[in-house]
Amino acid sequence: MTQTQLHTAQIVGETPAWVAKIYSSFDSLDVEAVLAHFSDDCRVRFGNGEPTVGHEEFLAGATAFLQSVRGMSHRFREVWQCGDSAVLVADVDYIRHNGSRLCLPAVTMLHRRADGLIDDMQVVLDLAPLFAV
After folding, report:
1. Are 61 and 47 in contact (CB under 8 A)?
2. Global confidence as pTM
3. Which of 23, 63, 77, 87 holds its CA 20 to 30 A away from the CA of 16?
4. What's the pLDDT tens digit per position in 85-129?
């Protein structure tokens, strides 16, 4: 009988470079740079919305969202890693087009393939306050 090695999630002291690089692309509102971090068959879901599958669907959704804000910045409070997966706990600062600012909490789960590309992303975040009048 072969013993299977169990992975145990561990909190990391600093934001891993691969996470910082991806979120630098998000925070620069550069959709093409964001897309470069995702596999062709990626599955991405924000909140309770329908998941997007593949680059084309993700690009359409990400473009629309990133154009809806003037800026944003992610500050990670905790990053948990377990094998090829990570859970990110963050405060996300948004700047609306009218110049007002809002900070929202978010939790993101990521899975990377062996080549480092993200093939699954789930963001738990209530964006309703961002678009409230």
Report:
1. no
2. 0.86
3. 63
4. 999 999 999 999 999 999 999 999 999 999 999 999 999 999 999
Tell me which DSSP letter residue 62 carries. H
Lookup: tokens for 52: 């997007």
Q: Among 35, 34, 67, which Cα is nearest to 54's?
A: 35
Hey, is 120 helix, strand or coil?
A: strand
Question: What beta strand segments (E) does the chain contain?
Answer: 10-11, 38-46, 52-53, 71-82, 85-95, 101-112, 118-124
What are 113's two structure tokens?
Answer: 């393939």
Residues 6+ apart with CB under 8 A from 8: 82
Cβ–Cβ < 8 Å for 78, 19: no
